[in-house]
Amino acid sequence: MRGRRFGAASFEVMLGRALPVLSVREVSERWRLAFTLMLEVYGRSVAPAPAAAVPLPETATVIAFVTAGLTAPSPS
After folding, report:
1. Of the candidates 30, 23, 22, 37, which has an alpha carbon nearest to the alpha carbon of residue 73?
2. Closest Cα to residue 19, out of 11, 27, 28?
3. Burial 35-67 (b: 16+ CB within 10 A, else e)
4. In the structure, what pLDDT confidence band is assigned to residue 1 with cuts at 50, 70 and 90?
5. Exposure of 76 in the CB half-sphere (CA atoms within 13 A)
6. Interhelix angle for 8-18 vs 24-42, to 10°?
7. Which of 17, 19, 60, 72 keeps 20 to 30 A from 25, CA to CA?
8. What is the pLDDT of residues 7-21, one digit of tens each?
9. How many domains are there within the chain?
10. How much is the pLDDT for 3?
């Protein structure tokens, strides 16, 4: 049995169902922005970094920020 391929489409569908007032384009853009942010924050190297490196933000802060961005009212 083959598993489903990982892709953004299924997440966009779930987000669109949760926020039916948003257009398909708005859902897609918000998902892409949220995913890019997550990659930027948690996709960093885990190797020892120089002393000037910025520590990871608190998980609760990331969750609140992404949630706010995904669920904000439509700009139009």
Report:
1. 22
2. 27
3. eeeeeeeeeeeeeeeeeeeeeeeeeeeeeeebe
4. very low
5. 5
6. 120
7. 60
8. 668 889 999 999 999
9. 1
10. 52
> CA-to-CA distance for 3 and 66, rounded, in angstroms?
28
Task: Classify residue 49: in a domain, yes or no.
Answer: no
Residue located via tokens 């926020």: 19
Report the distance separating Cα 3 and Cα 37, nearest Å.
27
Task: Please tell me what DSSP assigns to residue 44.
Answer: S
Q: Report the candidate in 29, 33, 6, 4 with the shortest Cα–Cα distance to residue 16.
A: 29
Write out pLDDT tens, residues 31-64.
999 999 998 888 876 666 566 667 888 999 999 9
Domain span at residue 37 reads: 8-44+54-71
